Amino acid sequence: MPELPEVEMVRRQLTDKIIGKQIASVEVCDWKSVDHNRNFATEVAGRKIVEIERVGKYLFLTLDQNNLYIAGHLKMTGRLIYQGMNDPIQYGGGHALSKPQPEQPHKHTRIIFTFTDGSHLYFNDMRKFGYMKLATAAEVEDQKQALGPEPITDLYSKEYLDKLLADRKTSVKAALLKQSDIAGLGNIYVDEACWRAKIRPDRIAGNLTPKEIKHLYTATRTVLEDAINFGGTTFRDYVDTNGEHGNFTDELAVFGRQGEACRRCEAIIEKTRVAGRGTHFCPGCQV
Question: What distances in angstroms separate CA 101 from CA 10, 22, 87, 251, one per listed residue?
Answer without folding.
Answer: 18, 25, 14, 29
